[in-house]
């Protein structure tokens, strides 16, 4: 059997990288094999990846040399940061730069950088419509990724700037699901007015990334966005209602009120949703469902995702 080509996958124990590892391993005839990079190769998740057939190696985004060791001998890399682990924009940018430097230093033939828009290109810091956060950001966890695109472009390696979408899993894990109000009725709150929000089942991000990898000669050097469906808050509430067997009312709260909710990251997410709302047309256009489905024919619609995951949504 011919030796398989290696892709080093950052975030392999998480949603995005894990989805990519599983997509490659599920394709037995793939010419690629995943090398999972984690800080803890002997953790339960590391061992599960090894048992599933992945190579598992140590690597830490806060330790640039460890990434060069982890990428050495690979042909490609999937690069992703996890802003929410530390909520420190400068650290996320350093982690992105370390990955881009390792892509360059190990002379890879292709990389995918999981990124998002730099919202300051649309809403300059001087624009008063939303507050400036942490001194120089509008939506910190977006802007850091968009700002980091340059490290990857400057690496000289063919890179796909891969723009992901709102995970529908946020309805399960991020406390964004429907809540029962004092009137006893279910309400689904999102500050996106009547605009459409591109969303996706997190596992599909990795599956679409595998589609990019298989066609990397076409997608290297390009910016590609993915989504499972573009839906308004009312459409999401309808789907939730069908799944829960009870009517769910959509409540388009103002972004300013959302920013004041007081949970960690509420201001960042309030600005994000305001940006999603005000720039919905461009944001959706960047994330073609048709292209996403061509990369991943099993792409889930919101209803498909609800059928598989709806039972895990806890009413708050
Ligand atoms: P996740 O499931 O929370 O897993 C985080 C992954 O990052 C783990 O595999 C972890 O690996 C790895 N990691 C964290 N710090 C590391 C370090 N210092 N060195 C090496 N690996 C490290 O993450 P995810 O959801 O796939 O991706 C998170 C990113 O998605 C965030 O930056 C977020 O902004 C972005 N995003 C989220 C949404 C959403 O709707 N939630 C939408 C679009 C984009 P180990 O612990 O095994 O080392």
What key phrases describe this protein's structure?
316 residues; alpha/beta; 3-stranded mixed sheet; binds NADP nicotinamide-adenine-dinucleotide phosphate
How would the blueprint of this fold be written?
Elements: E1 5-9, H1 15-26, E2 32-38, H2 44-52, E3 55-58, H3 64-71, E4 76-79, H4 83-86, H5 89-105, E5 110-115, H6 140-154, E6 159-163, E7 166-167, H7 170-173, E8 179-180, E9 186-189, E10 196-200, H8 202-214, H9 216-219, E11 223-225, E12 229-232, H10 233-244, E13 248-251, H11 255-259, H12 266-278, H13 280-285, H14 289-295, H15 302-309
Parallel strand pairs: 1-2, 1-4, 2-3, 4-5, 5-6, 6-11, 7-10, 9-13
Antiparallel strand pairs: 8-9, 10-12
Helix pairs in contact: 1-8, 3-5, 5-6, 8-14, 10-15
Bound molecules: NADP nicotinamide-adenine-dinucleotide phosphate.
